[in-house]
Amino acid sequence: MNNVLDRTKIYIGGEWVDSDGTGRIDVIAPATEDVIAVVAEGTAQDVDRAVRAARAAFPAWSALSGAERGAHLGKVAALMAERIDELAELVSRDMGMPVTLAKPVQIGMPLKNITRYAELAATYDFDAGEVGNALIVREPIGVVGAITPWNYPLHQVVLKVFAALAGGCTVVLKPTEVAPLITYALVDLCDEAGLPPGVFNLVSGYGPVVGEAIAAHPDVDMVSFTGSTRAGKRVAVVAAETVKKVALELGGKSANVILDDADLTRAVTDGVAQCFLNSGQTCSALTRMLVPAERMNEVAALAEQVARAYTVGDPTAAGTRLGPLVNANQFKRVRSYIDKGIEEGAELVLDGRETGLGTGYFVGPTVFANVTEDMTIAREEIFGPVLSIIGYRDEDDAVRIANDSDYGLSGGVWSADRARAERVARQMRTGQVYINGGAFNTDAPFGGYKHSGVGREAGVFGLEEFLEVKALLR
Fold this sequence. Notes:
- The protein folds into two domains: 9-250 and 452-473, Aldehyde Dehydrogenase, Chain A, domain 1 (3-Layer(aba) Sandwich), CATH 3.40.605.10; 255-435, Aldehyde Dehydrogenase, Chain A, domain 2 (3-Layer(aba) Sandwich).
- The chain contains 15 helices and 23 strands.
- With 474 residues, the protein is an alpha/beta fold.
- The longest helix has 25 residues, at 99-123.
- This is aldehyde dehydrogenase (NAD(+)).
- It is an enzyme of class 1 (oxidoreductase).
- It holds the Pfam family Aldedh.
- GO terms for molecular function: aldehyde dehydrogenase (NAD+) activity.
């Protein structure tokens, strides 16, 4: 236990302080199964203290000019940029993404968003315009409760916390207890940057205790949650008792529609990458590949060839493309879905259940072909490196299958005719669609339709989630 990091303090009012509780939570490295840290199992009393600190800090923070708030955020971004390599190593150890990917994705992307919110704080017009005799102004909603997941543990924190701070809100955060260390590092940076006390507070712990206390607290004006649809529904129910605003970014089962005129090699290669990023632990992963039924065998063979190049192993090794799943529960869950796909008659083209690695929560690249719409692996979010290839009859059938889901978070369309691809994309009931492998845009609004959530994150749309609209009638 000598190398176990002690992070058993919580951050309230600008100080690392003891939790009211005595419980502790072990943090497990998914690649080695070793305990690497211990954090506090926070309590409802801790949440109450944090909310009081955030409420006390709100008047002064919200009274600052946007430029003054932006300057504070910019200092945090500058410190993060100086330490990007060590932060990438920390998050890789924390949740398993290979270091070579973690640096641009798990650290670089949040850094870009912090920088953007620093800019938006300074440049956004909070007095947006006039409607007749009414001046329309936008004001911070107040104290924000943020509850964040383990798959992109810094990115999801930044999208909530720094958007809220840019808008003049103060924040109480419950980070994931599964991979919390990168968030603690962020709080250390905020402290070092001199963020005013009480503006940003952290209480570690479990969702049913700390998360529910945040959602239920009468002095929390808004809750922003990212996680499973089941947990998101619970947050909404609890928050409804105090009639607070709720933003939810939930699950997905996104369709990647490859039309009959597409370049199959490009489309399938990119589609596998979009499915397997972060070992498939991505809510917007394109896990359903929809292809012309008559080309199923050709696509399956190509997908298998591409997927075999996704080397599984040590996240610190240069050639690793798939790290471990985040914990034992996720490992069992993903393997059970593979078993279910076989049981229901899908064709297992590539089996990732056995990797030859005796330690760590590793599942290799897995490809199913001839998957039908009613199969479990076509309908439920697996959250692992598992691709389901589904055949369609024609373009209308492809759109129908794409929309035949409880979810609507992301999607993709491939066609040699860009106008055709855009026409299909417009018919898809989902919050974001990649056309011919379009690049991810950190400023574009991110969020879902249907059971994938409520509200949007990132860029201006993400900032505005944390603002109230007021009309001054003159």
